[in-house]
Amino acid sequence: MSYDKNNSRTMSRRTFIKTGAGAAALAALDTRGDFVKKAFGKSATRGKVLVLGFDGMDPHLTGVWMKEGKLPAFQKLAARGGFSRLGTSTPPQSPVAWSNFITGMNPGGHGIFDFMHRDPKTYFPIFSASATDEAAKTVRIGKYVLPIKGGEVRNLRKGRAFWQILEDHDIPATIWKIPGNYPPVATKQRTLSGMGTPDLVGSYGIFNYYTTELLEMNEDIGGGKIHLAYVIGNRVDAKLPGPVNTFLQDRPEAEVDFRVYLDSAAAVAKVALPDQEFILKEKEWSGWKRVRFHLMPTQSVTGLVRFYLKEIRPQFKLYVTPINIDPADPALPISTPESYAAELEKKFGPFYTKGLPADTSALDNDVLDEGEFLAQDGQILEESRAMLEYELNRFDSGLLFYYISSTDQRQHMFWRLQDEKHPAYDAALAAVYGDVIERTYRQADEILAQALSSIDKDTSVIVMSDHGFNPYYRSFHLNTWLLSEGYHVFKNPFKKEETEIGFPSTDWSKTRAYGLGLNSLYLNQRGREGEGIVAAGAETEALVREIARKLEAYRDPKTNEQVVLHAAVARDVYSGAHVGEAPDIILGFNRGYRISFQSPLGRIGQEIIENNTEKWSGDHMGAADVTPGIVLTDRPIRAEAPALYDLTATILQTFGIERPADMVGKPIF
Amino acid sequence: MGVLNSILGLIFDGFFAPFRALGPWPGMIVVSLVTGIVMLLIFKKTSNQDAIKRAKNQIKARLLEIRLFKNDTGGSFRSQAAILGANFRYMGHALRPMLVMFIPVLLILAQLNLRYGAASLRPGEQALVKMTLAEGASAEETATSLQSSDGVVVETPPLRIEEEREVDWRIRAEAPGLHLLTFNVGGTAVEKSVSVGQNAPAKVAALRARTFMDLFLYPGEKPLPKNSPVSKIEIVFPPLRLPLFGGTVHWLVAFFVLSIVFGFALKGVFKVEI
Predict the structure, then answer these.
(1) Which of A22, A33, A219, A605 is the most buried (most CB within 10 A)?
(2) What residues in B contact A279, CB-CB < 8 Å?
(3) pLDDT digits (tens, 9 = 90+) for B68-106
(4) What is the ipTM of this complex?
(5) To the nearest whole angstrom, how far is the Cα of B212 from the nearest Cα of chain A?
(6) Do B168 and A264 make contact, defined as CB atoms within 8 angstroms?
(7) In sequence order, what are the residues at sequence separation of 6 or more whose Cβ sits closer than 8 angstroms to the Cβ of residue A151?
């Protein structure tokens, strides 16, 4: 029994299970042995499983720093059980890899092949993980459009999540921010959605930046809006753009007006939102601010932002985070049960709900500098640790999965400062931030130590990552290569590049292949693509093999290194009901190489390959065999080459549950 | 007004003293009960009870008439007109007690707002302090500074907004207690209290001012002197909501619902015709 802040008594499902634990002895003859005991129709598990997921934690770096004694908790756990490379997905992108773990299947089974899929009829990129259907029926009253039959947000991953299978067997689970679970799949387990959760605008995260400086966004990176600000009489008037207002016929962006008052001499300003005001000094972050967007009379939606007053003079610079969905009153589904997000908000106050909250786009666009980015990611990590402690303290049965994003995000942004060979290496910055990745791994070690100190002897521990990391020195323009090889053809033969998405310059009547997504290549197949010309069957088979062979043979003209280590043909590497939806070829890059920033949305650069001078300098789009993750357990690992989907099978085995027939993973113990 | 506020403040302090340690609800329930009874008695003394009873009986009789003679359309209309007339008479009889009660209720509401309108700052919590200068003064040209007693930290330099004659600061609460902010405005010292770590129904004075209306609505502190260079000082405390069945409720809703419920429940005991 627990008491909330208002002294109202609540009895959670876990409390119920715990209360009934005394009766568990009666079920001693359960075929699942000692691990799971039946109590009043629910299972109170004496044994528990804690899974800590550190996104992108690399086995090489982990091994080196373990040997150097910098990760004592990792060493301690490895000494008790095992430490191994963990086979990742093909391709090793987070949505794909985590889906392998969630379902115990490979992409052919769960149907997530890339961050981006494409609409074969229009050749336009679409998000792979979720889809939003607008209201099926609406009625117009004057300027208002009212939904009659509601729309919905769908999780596009196929297959059942392991916590749904646990639920079938009455094993309780808490799943905290696992990537690829937006919207959360139907379950009574406690789950909070993670990577893939949009901001309130519906994107993967759009920051707003108000400045008197003339700046432009890097369109290839995107992720923000820059607003030109005017300081008039020590005052700046601005608007915070919110979600599209679908209640209005012309669907304008909802907005919140705000005003910033600047002191004429001191470096201090007051931000006045419609219902609240607060003061910030220069270089200061605000706490969470709740903003309400009015859509129509009786209808509004709230979101959460933090402000950062970067500079007052000589230039005015104010950064506003992407508008996070308010967990106290979520406009979109972010948890199961719905009350779980609100419960966390009540306990901890507002928190980051956007999938990957650290604003890498702001750092990439020079809106935030390295220190400011780390300050923001530090807030995120602090929030995560506080909630982990809370969950560990009430973890009395079943499974707890906990996810940390900072390991991934910081490796993406700070690899260049620990690697002198990187084209974006900066000695001055490296002197300050060259050890950020090492410090982050040490923080991961502290988190593991925190967890190990909180659990009892009946708790099994699995520490895992979805993939490792590689340097990203050189960018490969897949469509430019296809153009050079004659597989892709422009309508205008003199045209050299394409800056728009959707291939508006492509002559589909002569184009046989195109690249879209981070590792994906598609043939322009007749009957499948809108203007396909390659016949299914033998012609497709021959062309796929030919392109794959040529891709693997391609050498970087500057270094003579192989760029694409493996050009995998989908049906060779995938199994399951959804292989037919896969890209035709999945590119696995060599260490140091990645798809260019322009390629994933179908833009086409002039050069086939060029240096990567962006701050986004570490990556994991490599071939699976050069980008493995880690697994660390408190029991010896018997499997020779454990992989992500094997962990799923291992979890089920630990609770005595048989693997479903479509699960390809096998237990690692 | 300042004297009246002081007297009322003492009365309400005494009233709420036994409930300080019991959380917000016991005090609210008892004050609603007492208010309900007092309002009943005022209503009884200041209204024409016989006339009210007569008007209500007429309404009941006419309603019965409509029910009995529902086939007589003309009769029904006449009855409805009579009900309307009786209603107006009833409201007319209620007007005098309402007018008599209006000012006392406002004074009670102001005292309750002082105790239930805003939450005391929690240690570590920040708040905005807004000082508005007197008419004709310039925020830019008037030398201002702010000092705090122990338990509160002033976190920012003054932010001057000339067009609003306003100077703002941010403070952070550090330790529970009733602390003091001292504003130095062109050589004149002005003080304002800050409540930290106090639970409702402790007093949380959000505004110190000098206009009659502000004094009426915000009776928490002595009014500013008439010749003060400051016209008002406000601390933006977080709003307080009363916890109720896992949700929250505004104190005003709680007060009106409870006092009306108590009033109706006890009207028989006090033999009051409402």
Answers:
(1) A605
(2) 128, 156, 159, 168-170
(3) 888 888 888 999 999 999 999 999 998 999 999 998 899
(4) 0.86
(5) 26
(6) no
(7) A132, A133, A134, A135, A136
